Predict the structure.
Amino acid sequence: MWRLISVVDSAAYALYKLNDRDADPKSLSRIVWVLSNLFRYADKFSEDCFRGRANYILQECVNSMKSRDHENCWRYDEELWDDAVELLYNCCRDNVIILSSKSDFKVVVPFVIEYIKNNPSNTRLANALIILEKAIYALGKERMKKCRGLLAALGSIADYGNNEAGKGAKDDALKLIIGIYQS
């Protein structure tokens, strides 16, 4: 078990150090991919492995998507962002409670919104929508309504003029819009 903790801590520290520089997205993507694969099997490990580390890891993962010079400016790299969405999905899927608290989702939701804006027809779109669905339960409808760009991102998928997004993604986006904005 301590080896797993060591790998998780080392990966998180590597993300932190690489975020300090203008790192190559490929390097960041590899680290995020490793974390994603570890968390895919997180339900097989003790919850203690990840307690206290989850928010730090998620924060560093999201920070790796941002420009170092401008905190609110996103650096888009398709492979890195796809790996990050896969990591976030693996952290909140059934039987895994790594991504579950309000503070976790406050960190993650802005990135997921940006991901949807940049990839409205991506194959990992379903995972991004699942993350947002889980965020509604953690943050509540009122907090989700205040998320900048959420309605526009979901609307771009749900728009029936969008021929790139599959019908399932359109229906899921529409359900999220209704779930958040319906009284």
In short: Residues 23 and 129 are 28 Å apart (CA to CA). The first helix runs from residue 2 to 19. The chain is about 65% helix and 0% strand. The chain has a mean pLDDT of 80.
